[in-house]
Amino acid sequence: MGLSIPLVWSDDHRLHEPNAEIWVGVRTPAAETAPRAETIREALVAAGAEVVAAVSHDDAQIEAVHDTALLAFLASAWRDWEAAGLPEDPGQDRVVPYIFPHPGLVGPLEPLVPAATWARPGAFCFDTMTLIGPGTWQAARAAADAALTAADLVSGGRRAVYACCRPPGPHVTRSAYGGAGYLNNAAIAAERLRDLGAARVGIVDIDAHHGNGAQSIFWERNDVFTGSVHVDPETGWFPHYLGTAGELGAGVGSEANRNVPLPPGTGDADWLRGVAELVQAARSNGAEALVLALGVDAAGGDPESPLQVTTGGYHEAGRIVASAGLPCVVVQEGGYDLASIGELVLATLEGLDADA
Length: 356
What we know:
Mean pLDDT: 97
CATH superfamily: Histone deacetylase domain
Number of domains: 1
Structural class: alpha/beta
Shape: globular
CATH architecture: 3-Layer(aba) Sandwich
Helix content: 25-40%
Low-confidence stretches: none
Strand content: 5-15%
CATH class: Alpha Beta
Number of strands: 10
Distance between the termini: 11 Å
Order of helices and strands: EEEHEHHHHEHEHEEHEHEH
CATH topology: Arginase, Chain A
């Protein structure tokens, strides 16, 4: 029997071609590229997955999660960059920030939104790795539509639906983008599930890096539980500044956030205990539906993390999520080893699908 979990897809992901990352000031090859999604699709289709086209949604669904100022910037960033002649002089073919409104710079003052096109990205981006090109906004918007379409299908009665979101977005906050993402697809899906009737939703993020975006967006809410199992940022890993076990939410959202930071080299056993802890915490918080933020970069051999999870570990993670007995939207996040990414995503979905 083939995979019963449908794949939500948009060809528009191919419009996003970052070409490079600027890391410690050096231009290096981009890790988040189109072949990631194409390889995943090939593996899932070969396993019998139904392909569903992403449906365009109203901007209000995105604005429920992100500030309109961020969205307006993202929609116009490349057009403004090109109009300013920056691809020719100084020859930067992608939008990249160079100055940021650090608290040490602006102090108690509300920072301006810079008038200079080349300074403006720093008001909305928190790193230099996440470049914007001619088709980035269209691709990011299509990724959000994929997540929204998956949420619609789950709310309509499908037990689990996979959204092949590219670019990903686990690090994107309400007002700032970064970490190779532009919109927080998991957060958008969670908010949509709530709009469609789930009183409470749980986001379980198993990407190798801390899901700081959803944590920030829902920090003071208890209707969306946010949980992340990831390599400990205190050992030197992105996003560096947050992701500890002591971050529990605030206000009515106190205790509605859970982080499980793990040391480099962690393999299946401890990682799976973390996954199970988050699923149980989401259920204890009253979740009626789940969003699985599926990064497969925790796998051994992935160039972007030091964790050592196996293909079997990912299959078991899918089974643990399924054991919650809740409808689930799966949103693709990280995973950068093209030789294994399709197999790892398929293994997770097969685990989630095992008792269908």
